[in-house]
Design brief:
Immunoglobulin-like; 445 residues; 17% strand; 4-stranded mixed β-sheet; elongated; 3-stranded antiparallel β-sheet; disordered N terminus; alpha+beta; disordered C terminus
């Protein structure tokens, strides 16, 4: 076969994919973002109501808009395929639909326009995207699958790890696909998954977690040590995180300099020793009731049993409340000197890239463009400005990579495409022990 014939064969086969059966859920986001703005119960333009199946089949002032199973004879399909400058093009604003959305509409009508009984459509913002349908369109460009954290060690019965699955696509964008990947534990006798939370089953052992999506897979090694051993409930490890999660020790609540409503906590839990003393030595018998933990003021206010200026924080049967109750029931004891200490915090994935809306980039260095990984920086997939701090003056300086487009105020230099937008956090460096200036001045290259 001549190589010259191959492009023509591909063009001839391309329309076949659009005729594959398309479900209602696949086409729903297209209808809700593109059509329902003008054809909903509050705004029935052209006497066409598209929020229900009956209204959809009835059509508008000009008659039916679809013939199920006949996309070429359906007015809806014809209108969305009209040229850009045609006065009857639908939708009237925003230009022609992307090819992927055109294919979904055509495929849905060709499949008979399936519509579940009782289902209704509602208008949604144009930038709202159905994650499942959008991911289905990107799966063919899936390049890599990863599980975070990369290694898991479970060291007690209370220990648990939440796992996240990330996908990287050929355009350098990344996405959290945990909810869409098939995740399983190789040996359920060693560890188990409750949702996306990994916990120990055996006292010790090794296994792995496998995530699969779009024909790719990723593995996570898991080690269990003392999985059957339960450690005592800890004030610093189990109670203080509840205060932080509930916002109790923030500046607008009990973390204020003078506290709130007669009770003070250290800001963001910076002084756990002082918090323990204030919590257990003030209002003895009321704030903490060792005889009846459920009647402790600390508990009653948080679950909304009694009035609380901070309102209800969590449910009585929540894990947060269970931690507090267990700590009080065990005597509300302070931690031993050798309690585990936090030595570091890591954020996964360390670098991510997302595709933004179709508008000119506001980056001071111009549009951000994806770059291929190099031998020295295998994970650097995006070009984005970085921020550094001068050790001497403390001034903030922003610098752009060599691949970034030059800054220009000319409208012609602005890209109308959807550039990937880096969400990695630049690191600021400063000389140890040096006092930071009271004000920071931002400078651009």
């Amino acid at each position: 076969m001549s190589c010259r014939l191959l492009p023509f064969l591909l063009l001839a086969l391309a329309p076949l994919r659009a005729l594959e059966p398309v479900s209602f859920e696949q086409v729903r986001p297209v209808l809700e973002t593109r059509c329902l703005e003008c054809h909903n119960p509050d705004k029935v333009k052209g006497k066409l109501l598209m929020s229900t199946q009956a209204g959809f089949l009835k059509g508008g002032a000009n008659g039916p808009i679809i013939e199920p199973g006949q996309p070429d004879r359906s007015e809806l399909v014809k209108r969305v395929h009209l040229p850009k400058d045609h006065e009857d093009l639908m939708p009237p604003k925003g230009g022609p639909l992307p090819p992927a959305e055109l294919a979904l509409l055509r495929g849905w009508v060709a499949a008979g326009a399936p519509w579940p009984a009782g289902a209704t459509l509602a208008p949604r913002a144009k930038d709202a995207v159905d994650p499942k349908a959008d991911l289905a369109l990107k799966l063919p460009s899936l390049e890599k699958l990863e599980i975070f954290p990369p290694v898991v060690t479970i060291e007690s019965k209370r220990d648990f790890h939440r796992i996240v699955v990330f996908a990287t696509f050929k355009d350098a964008t990344t996405r959290d696909v945990t909810a869409f990947a098939a995740i399983k534990v190789a040996d359920p006798k060693v560890a188990e998954l409750n949702g996306y939370t990994l916990q120990a089953v055996a006292d010790a052992g090794h296994t792995e977690v496998t995530a699969t999506l779009g024909g790719l897979s990723a593995k996570l090694p898991v080690t269990v040590k003392d999985g059957a051993k339960d450690r005592p409930v800890s004030f610093r490890l189990d109670v203080m995180p509840v205060f932080l999660r509930g916002g109790c020790n923030q500046g607008g609540c009990h973390g204020a300099a003078r506290g709130k409503d007669g009770f003070r906590l250290s800001l963001f839990g910076m002084d756990p020793n002082g918090d323990y003393v204030r919590l257990t030595r003030e209002m003895v018998g009321r704030r903490i009731n060792l005889a009846i933990p459920e009647e402790s003021t600390l508990v009653e206010k948080a679950v909304g049993t009694v009035p609380h200026s901070g309102n209800k924080l969590y449910e009585p049967d929540s894990a947060y409340n269970r931690n507090i109750l267990e700590w009080i029931a065990h005597g509300a004891k302070d931690d031993a000197p050798d309690v585990a200490q936090v030595t570091g915090i890591e954020v996964y994935r360390r670098r991510s890239c997302s595709k933004g809306r179709r508008r000119p980039s506001r980056s001071p260095c111009g549009p951000l463009t994806p770059t291929a990984p190099t031998a020295t920086s295998p994970t650097s997939r995006c070009s984005c400005p970085t921020t550094t701090r001068s050790p001497r003056s403390g001034r903030m300086a922003m610098s752009a990579p060599a691949t970034a487009a030059p800054r220009s105020s000319s409208p012609a230099s602005m890209s109308s495409a959807s550039p990937p937008r880096c969400s990695s956090s630049p690191r600021a460096s400063s000389t140890p022990g040096q006092r930071r200036p009271s004000s920071i001045t931002s400078t651009a290259p």
